């Protein structure tokens, strides 16, 4: 009930964003059920025009583009979500730990993070993936570690502001441990900016995976991925065929949808924080 009440008071832009996100969620979950063909099945001519059998046409190998888009959503979005959850778990834990303990723990963790952030993220990822390979587990671990550095900086800043509050001091005087204070005092009060950051980091990870796939070091064929689909079909533009625009449009649409919801959430959190309705 609370969700529907919140939905009724949300602006049109937020509703559009939520509709886009839900559409992509349904595509991820139901891809094997609603896809007209299998992920790798070759069905027709190369770069065939949209028709009743293939309403989005075919790709560079003659596979159905609608099917590839559905499975691409399933692969790209699910991997991006797993990476974002892992990066937030690591970044929040170490960020709050550095804020609460301070001293040498804060210095060591912060210098490690500063060193990692000194390298351009894409170049660092390309270097590591070129050496370790491009399997899905390695891709998840590498991007999670790189992205957790950004989450660490935000979590540390939030933790340092919250851990000096009176209710945190009261909890310490009661004899509560570090982990209890982090879970029950700091984390609940840091949720609004962290949730907004989660949406923004998901967009970054999602686009980062697409970029790596476009460069050939992301999700590997024959798995469908929106970034690799753009790269594989980019030659069609030369012949006036718009096949690569379907996955490119899907990437842009999901990014816009998530940002619309994040913008609304930030505005609502700011209203609640300042007391204006």
Structural features, described:
It is a single chain. By secondary structure, the chain is mainly α. It has one domain: MetI-like (MetI-like fold), CATH 1.10.3720. The chain contains 10 helices and no strands. It has helices at residues 2-9, 12-34, 65-101, 103-117, 121-132, 136-162, 166-173, 178-214, 226-232, 245-274. The longest helix is centred in the N-terminal third of the chain and has 37 residues, at 65-101. It is elongated, with a radius of gyration of 22 Å. The mean pLDDT is 87.
What secondary-structure arrangement, pairings included, does this model have?
Layout: H1 2-9, H2 12-34, H3 65-101, H4 103-117, H5 121-132, H6 136-162, H7 166-173, H8 178-214, H9 226-232, H10 245-274
Mean of the pLDDT scores? 87
Helix content: over 70%
Strand-and-helix sequence, N→C? Answer: HHHHHHHHHH
Q: CATH H level: which superfamily?
A: MetI-like
Number of helices: 10
CATH class: Mainly Alpha
Q: Might you state the CATH topology name?
A: MetI-like fold
What gap, in angstroms, lies between the N and C termini? 20 Å
Number of separate structural domains: 1
- The total beta strand count reads 0
The share of residues in extended strands comes to: under 5%
Shape: elongated
Structural class: mainly alpha
Radius of gyration: 22 Å
Quick structural summary:
The chain is mainly alpha-helical and 277 residues long. Helices cover 74% and strands 0% of the residues. The mean pLDDT is 87.
